[in-house]
Amino acid sequence: MSPAGKIAKDRRWKAGKNRMAKVDAFLESLITFNKEKIDQSNIDTLKPYLKNNKFSEKCIKSKPIAAGPFSKRYRTELIEEKWMLYLKDPTTGLPMSENIDLLDILTNSAGIAQWNNKGLPTGCVSLEDATIVS
After folding, report:
1. Which site from 47, 67, 99, 122 is most exposed, i.e. has the minimal number of CB atoms within 10 Å?
2. pLDDT digits (tens, 9 = 90+) for 21-75
3. Is the CB of residue 8 less than 8 Å from the CB of residue 2?
4. Rounded to 5 degrees, what angle do the CA atoms 10, 11, 15 make?
5. In this structure, what DSSP letter does residue 65 have?
6. CB–CB of 130/68 below 8 Å?
7. How far is CA 8 from its chain centroid?
8. In angstroms, what CA-CA distances link 114 with 2, 37, 41, 45, 120?
9. Which residues contact 120 (CB under 8 A, 6 or more apart)?
């Protein structure tokens, strides 16, 4: 969604991918998004898409969970340098074993199977991306 009154003129997929490539800014916009207070200009821009028969819940659910992979550098920074450092910090009060796999803590085989059934490709990159966005 765009800031109030600042609707993007270029709404092609390439422009969307470019916006999502700036991962920190994109994630911050998702985290701070207020679904209770959507600007009318965004709603008006969305209406033509909602009228399109190809834009349906069924169609959207048939698409992969993540729009694209996060970079290896971003995944490593997030998992190793942020999450793991936080979890290993003695002030958090979380006792942990050494050499713990964070994905083992944050996921389970049933959840991974469900993601795969919805179209998530198998593999570490896809699993890490799905874990990050969930």
Report:
1. 99
2. 777 777 777 778 788 888 888 788 888 888 887 777 777 666 655 456 778 888 8
3. yes
4. 75
5. S
6. no
7. 21
8. 32, 32, 36, 33, 9
9. 64, 65, 66, 126, 127, 130
